[in-house]
From TrEMBL:
Source organism (scientific name): Paenibacillus gyeongsangnamensis
Superkingdom of source: Bacteria
Protein name from the UniProt record: Glutamate 5-kinase
Keywords: Amino-acid biosynthesis, ATP-binding, Cytoplasm, Kinase, Nucleotide-binding, Proline biosynthesis, Transferase
Function: Catalyzes the transfer of a phosphate group to glutamate to form L-glutamate 5-phosphate.
Length: 377
């Protein structure tokens, strides 16, 4: 069976600060998930919103603080939540199944294997499994609290194609965008480091719990399990499919770096380039799509003072970075032979290897070479 897409929807996307479910939003998300399935992707939903859906019916004016109050609210709200999903998916001819999990279920091999078998059976039969934390039995220290971590563990359990975490902001910003309007979105993250944790703050709404920090933690868990993650907004028709296809309104957490050898990780993300060469379209294609080495014939321009063994950056004719590699030429040698055929090069200078960058010493980086890319907009 095709790999599953795990979609997590937070309370802030389903309810308002005053509590209560927003049926229109549930209908919208069911339609979005139905579209993913039409494109052949089995879908599993991790949903929050039980406490937010139930607290008003329990007589609380705002989301309650005490555990037993939240649990009772969740027991009321979970039924409302499932009823709403049941109806919304039914209008697309799709059945749903409810699964409530706690953190301790994941540390018990037997229980988690049973949960996995249930999920797989539902998926095989064309249903959408809908998961939430089992709030009634979870005690504070053992609670996920937010469902972000839960969704990452489920994604790893199923070896999902992608984890899509839907929230009320379009991704990770350099600061909480609710607090600073100048904050800029980070489009792509290859590595979750201290800096990423530092900028990710808590929840900005009255109903959400984990904020961006718990989404980063979830992304770290999923990336470690080899599952790429999208965190962002899905609020217009087609957004969920766009998120899956890499053109969504949010931040992508890439697993590419995790699958690389140590040498290539260093080359791509930690090395300091000493120069830059511009290559022609043929060389760009050979490097990026052909798995070939860079030869002097494809080099158009050389910038910087580098020596054999240094790392250099390679840009395409539009000056976009396409990758990095270890050069076998000094800058002055390359300047002398740029654009020449291998035969001509051998007549003019003596080099240890004819390739400017050998393919084993090259890493493709479609986008700028940083641990994260900040949107230019
Ligand atoms: N650096 C940041 N970038 C984006 N959002 C952030 C950041 N720091 C904190 N946040 C807050 O995280 C919120 C999303 O988390 P949360 O309220 O828990 O939503 P959900 O209910 O969808 O899980 C955003 O509304 C935003 O206010
Ligand atoms: N299990 C809880 C989830 C708590 C929560 O608010 O999570 P989230 O909105 O994902 O930050 C519920 O359904 O209300």
């Amino acid at each position: 069976m095709q790999q599953t897409v795990v979609v997590k929807i937070g309370s802030s996307s389903l309810t308002s600060d005053e509590g209560g479910l927003n049926r229109d939003k549930i209908g919208f998300f069911a339609a979005e998930l139905a579209k993913l399935r039409e494109q052949g992707h089995p879908v599993l939903l991790v949903t929050s919103g039980a406490v937010a859906a139930g607290f008003r019916a329990m007589g609380f004016a705002v989301r309650p603080k005490h555990l037993h109050e939240k649990q009772a609210s969740a027991s009321v709200g979970q039924a409302l939540l499932m009823q709403a999903y049941h109806e919304a998916f039914a209008s697309h001819g799709i059945g749903v199944g409810q699964i409530l999990l706690t953190r301790s279920d994941f540390s018990n091999r037997k229980r988690i294997t049973n949960a996995q078998m249930t999920i797989e059976e539902l998926l095989r039969r064309g249903m959408v499994p809908i998961i939430n934390e089992n709030d009634t039995v979870a005690v504070d220290e053992l609670k996920f609290g937010d469902n972000d971590t839960l969704s990452a563990l489920v994604a790893n359990l199923l070896r999902a194609e992608k984890l899509i975490i839907i929230t009320d902001t379009d991704g990770l910003y350099t600061e909480d965008p609710r607090k600073n309007a100048d904050a800029r979105r980070i489009d792509r993250v290859y590595e979750i480091d201290e800096e990423i944790y530092r900028i990710a703050g808590g929840s900005g709404s009255m109903v959400g719990t984990g904020g961006m920090r718990s989404k980063i933690e979830a992304a770290r868990i999923a990336m470690r399990g080899g599952v790429p993650v999208f965190v962002g907004r899905v609020n217009e028709p087609g957004d969920a499919l766009a998120a899956l296809e890499g053109i969504g309104k949010g931040t992508y957490f890439d697993t590419r770096a995790h699958n690389l050898t140590m040498k290539k990780q260093w080359l791509g993300f930690h090395s300091l380039p000493q120069g830059r060469v511009t290559v022609d379209e043929g060389a760009e294609h050979a490097l990026v799509s052909g798995g070939k080495s860079l030869l002097p014939a494809g080099v158009k321009e050389v910038v910087g003072e580098f020596h054999p063994g240094d790392v250099i950056e390679v840009v395409n004719p539009s000056q976009q970075t396409i990758g990095r590699g270890v050069t076998n030429y000094a800058a002055w040698q390359l300047q002398a032979v740029a654009g020449l055929s291998t035969e001509e090069v051998q007549k003019r200078i003596e080099v240890y290897r004819i390739e400017v960058i050998h393919r084993d010493e090259w890493i493709t980086l479609a986008s700028p070479v940083k641990a994260q890319d900040i949107a230019q907009s």
